[in-house]
Structure formats: C-alpha cells, structure tokens
Write a structure and sequence with these properties.
The strands form 4 sheets. This protein has a 7-stranded mixed β-sheet, sandwiched between helices. The protein contains 11 helices and 15 strands. Helix content is about 35%, strand content about 15%. Helix 1 packs antiparallel against helix 7, helix 3 runs parallel beside helix 4 and helix 8 packs parallel to helix 11. The protein is of the alpha/beta class. The two termini are about 15 Å apart. The chain binds pyridoxal-5'-phosphate.
Length: about 400
C-alpha cells in the first residue's frame, strides 16, 4: 500500500507516537488539572511538555499562548467567532478551505462584513497591496491561508503581517498545511492567531490541533466549564490557556503529538523539507512527462508545498482515484478538497482534480510506482464508476 494523502492527514506516524498512545493510556491515563494524585500530575506534565514544544517550534514568547483544540477547524472557529462582532469587517481570500469560509459565511449572516479577495495571479497568490487597499475603519481582522491544500501555493504571510502591523489589525493565519512543514516564527511575522492541526505535518494523531494567540488578541471562549481550576466560581476562569480549554482534554492525543514534535525536531524541519522537495521534483517532472496529464499549481517550486494536483484527459478525478486505490493500492484524494473556490482559480471546478501529497516517510520508489500506474492509466479509456465509486477497469497493476 502506498499512502499519498498526507495533506488530509499524515500517515504513518513515527513509531514513538504509536507507542506513547499505548503506554500513556496504560500508565498516565488520569485527568490532568483536576486531581492532585501522582497519576493526574504526571498526565498534566506531559500535556504541558507538548505545549512547550509547540511554543518552541513557533517561537511563541509564552507557552500559555498555545491553546489545545481538536483540529485546525476548531481553532479557526474559536478565532473567528471569538473575535468578530456584528459591524466588524474582515478581509480574507476567496480561495480558502471551507474551515475558514464557512464560519465566515455564518458570521456574515450575523452582521460581520466580509471582503473576499481574488488572487492576483492565476497561480493563486494573494497580494499584500490588495489586502491593504481593502482596509477600512471597521476592519478588525485579516484572515488568510498560509498554503493551499489544493495547489500548494505558499502565501507571503510575512508581507501580510507587515500590513496588519502597520494598520494595527489582527492577522489570523490558517496554517493547517504548513505547521510542521515550513519554519514559522509567529513573532517575526506579526501573526496574532495561528491555527494548526496536530495530525498533519506535526505527525500527531487525529483529534489534535492548536491555536497560537498573541497577547494583542483576546477572543471570547466558545465553550465554558470543566476547566478543573477556580472550582468555587460559576464564571469561566480568565487565565490562558485554560479559559479556552473547557472539558477533559485529549491527553493521550496530546502526549502522542509531543512525540511527533520530538521526531520532527530531532530530524529537523530543514532535512524533512529537503526530502519532500526531492519527492515533489520527481513527481512533478514525472507527471509532466506523461502525455494526457495536466498538472496545476505555481511554477516556482520554492513557493509551493509538496502537493501535486493533476488531471488525466478524458478521466474524471474520481475515476483516477478509484483505479489508483483498487488496482494499485495507492491512496490519493480526488474531488474538490473542501476548497471549491481554489478549484475555480485553477480552472478545475466543478469536478476538481486528483491530489497526491507526500510526507517525510514517502520514498522515491513509491513516487515511481505512482508514476508507472499513471502512465498505464493515461493510455486507456476511463472505467464506468458505480454509485459506490467502485470501478470496473481494464487497468491493473501487473
Ligand atoms: C488549508 C486547510 N485549512 C483547514 C483544514 C482543516 O483542518 P482539520 O481537519 O485539522 O480541521 C485543512 C485540512 O485539510 C486545510 O488543508
């Protein structure tokens, strides 16, 4: 089996992630921040160690500014709904993931004004000048995606940060695809809110995510109760991080996320980036050499993540995904990738495309196997997909 759907969630995980989930649940599976016994204290220590590692990775000045959430969507909802009030104005790009666009649409129905900027180039780049020009007296937030999960285009968030700083407006970055993949310094880039997933580039388990919040912003918590601190009060406590972490946390997931972080730090982001770039180069060059395949995304490979979106002439993306899965045991993602507007920019709406996305564990042999499979597919007629997306095809691995 070859897994190339790492932009959805990374797989496999480092061995220590699996081991820690098992041993943590067996040995430290108590409720942190509630009881004073040694098992609860040990659980809390592990959670706080992961928080410190995240703060170090992002160069956050205070680990209390890192809030644990369930996933990146959870972090984006907290940022947007906790900060924006009717009458506020927010500037965003039209090509974001629906984890950003849907909460914004809901807020718009409630009286928040939303400006959606089109990219300034067909490659999907958003212009800092366009952002600056859209700023008005009520602009409270700039909400952008660091890198597209469809085309991989990496936005210049440093320049967005300069605009935000100049106008004293908060900057929210959806870093679902970039934390654990690209180096990010929240202080140097003037980011106020950085939403991320624990289960993608950070190599942690699903059900983990986080939000960095600078001291300049104070979103309202979206949930109350169950913090284990200030038990005598009926009011939500006001200190970070616990005011935002209501209810028993995903301790086992956070413990394992810590191991994902340790793995990344020991191997180094730079080394992982180089490895992924080697895989991406082979993949993009190979795809470009197969007749009938169209590849999308920025031409400048230094400005794109290791995702390769493509289509095969006459074939629908679903047909390619199904044949890769069923005839070759290769896992990719086909369709609109929760980001229909990004596909409109690429010209691939409404059917979308096929996306292969690599992780630090993929190999050149796996990329070559995918390319070999695509060569066979591109020379044949598409199969008929049944309603459950199984296929009958003349293409086989052998
Ligand atoms: C750009 C982007 N934003 C947000 C998300 C949502 O992340 P999560 O599944 O952790 O909520 C994704 C997931 O693919 C993404 O690619």
């Amino acid at each position: 089996m070859i897994y190339l759907d790492n932009a959805a969630t990374s797989w496999p995980k480092p061995e220590a992630v699996y081991r820690t989930m098992d041993t943590f649940l067996r040995e430290k599976g108590a409720n942190p921040g509630r009881s004073g016994h040694d098992m609860a204290v040990a659980a809390e220590k592990v959670v706080e160690e992961t928080r410190v590692l995240l703060a170090r990775l992002l160069n956050a000045p205070d680990e209390k500014d890192i809030i644990f959430t369930l996933n990146c969507t959870d972090s984006l909802n907290l940022s947007l709904k906790g900060l924006l009030k009717p009458g506020d104005h927010v500037i965003t790009s039209s090509i974001s993931h629906n984890s950003l666009t849907r909460p914004l649409r809901r807020l718009e129905h409630e009286g928040v004004k939303v400006t959606r900027l089109l990219p300034c180039s067909e490659e999907g780049f958003v212009s800092p000048q366009d952002i600056e020009q859209a700023i008005g007296p009520n602009t409270r937030l700039i909400a952008v995606t660091h890198a597209s999960n469809v085309s991989g285009v990496i936005q210049p968030i440093e320049e967005f940060g300069e605009v935000a700083k100049r106008h004293d407006i908060a900057l929210l970055v959806d870093a679902a695809q970039t934390v654990g993949t690209l180096p990010i310094d929240v202080q140097a880039t003037n980011v106020d809110l950085l939403a991320f997933a624990g289960h993608k580039g950070l190599l942690g388990p699903t059900g983990t995510g986080g939000l960095y919040m600078s001291k300049r912003v104070e979103p309202e918590p979206l949930k109350e109760g169950g913090t284990g601190t200030v038990s005598e009060s009926e009011e939500q406590p006001s200190g970070r991080p616990y005011m935002y972490e209501s209810g028993t946390p995903n301790t086992v997931g956070i413990a394992a996320l810590g191991e994902g972080l340790r793995y990344l730090m020991s191997r180094t982001l730079a080394d992982i980036q180089t490895h992924k770039k080697t895989l991406l180069d082979r993949l993009l060059d190979g795809l470009a050499a197969i007749p009938g395949i169209t590849v999308y995304g920025p031409r400048d490979r230094a400005r794109r993540l290791s995702v390769a979106p493509f289509n095969i002439e006459r074939w629908s993306p679903d047909e390619v995904g199904a044949v890769l899965d069923q005839a070759f045991d290769i896992k990719v993602r086909a369709g609109l990738h929760c980001a229909p507007a990004a596909h409109k920019v690429l010209g691939t709406y409404p059917h979308g495309c096929v996306r292969a996305s690599v992780s630090c564990f993929n190999t050149l042999d796996e990329i070559d196997f995918l390319l070999g499979a695509l060569e066979k597919i591109a020379g044949t007629e598409p199969p008929r997909l049944t309603a459950d997306k199984t296929q009958s095809s003349s293409v086989s691995a052998h």
